[in-house]
Amino acid sequence: MATKKGSSTASGSLLELVLIVAVALGLALGIQAFLVKPYRIPSESMVPTLQVGQRVLVNRIGARFSTPHVGDIVVFHPPAGAEQDNTCGSGQPPAGQVCDKPTPERADVNFIKRVVGEPGDTIYIRGGTSTATASARRTRTRSPAEAATGATSPSPSRFPPTTTS
């Protein structure tokens, strides 16, 4: 009788351990899918605010119920080609110009970027400093410490309304 009880207790403990691990795994996957998701900064585009290799936790709830504003940091899948050679939906843009039409497919990589303008804003980039001008709403100039060093656009760029996913 003592042997049976010991065996029953061992199988009960094993079942409890498997149940605990399954619940913990389910909670971790649920939290990552719906609440927060960890990302690693892959490139120098966010320096000096975020360094290459740093990890960030992204609030997934806020992205579902609000639109990004100037200064927010967003994570998104860019149009296919944006991560490699600036491929546009309407062909290669002229030197120094932005794409006028994105490719219809999304890339598999994630971009982590700061919002510098909103739909309808005009963006100027001179010597690594960007300025977003929106008629009567606001004008904001990023300091050289915030801006990507060396980025230059010879003429202002207007960006159409777009959505991120």
Structure report:
It contains 2 helices and 8 strands. It folds into 2 domains: 1-34; 35-158, Umud Fragment, subunit A (Ribbon). It has helices at residues 2-34, 60-65; strands spanning 36-40, 55-59, 73-76, 111-114, 122-126, 129-134, 138-141, 153-158. It is of the alpha+beta class. Mean pLDDT is 75; it is low at 136-141, 143-155 and 161-165. The chain has a 4-stranded antiparallel sheet, with no helix packed on it. A two-stranded antiparallel sheet has the order 1-2. The protein has a two-stranded antiparallel ribbon with strand order 3-4. 24% of the residues lie in helices and 24% in strands. It is elongated, with a radius of gyration of 24 Å.
In the residues, how many domains can be counted? 2
Share of helical residues: 10-25%
Strand content: 15-25%
Mean pLDDT: 75
Secondary-structure element series: HEEHEEEEEE
Category by helix and strand content:
alpha+beta
The CATH class of the largest domain turns out to be Mainly Beta
Q: What gap, in angstroms, lies between the N and C termini?
A: 61 Å
Instruction: Give me the number of helical elements.
Output: 2
Here the CATH topology of the largest domain equals Umud Fragment, subunit A
Largest sheet: 4 strands, antiparallel
Q: Which strand order do you get reading across the main beta sheet?
A: 7-6-5-8
Number of strands: 8
List the topology elements.
Layout: H1 2-34, E1 36-40, E2 55-59, H2 60-65, E3 73-76, E4 111-114, E5 122-126, E6 129-134, E7 138-141, E8 153-158
Antiparallel strand pairs: 1-2, 3-4, 5-6, 5-8, 6-7
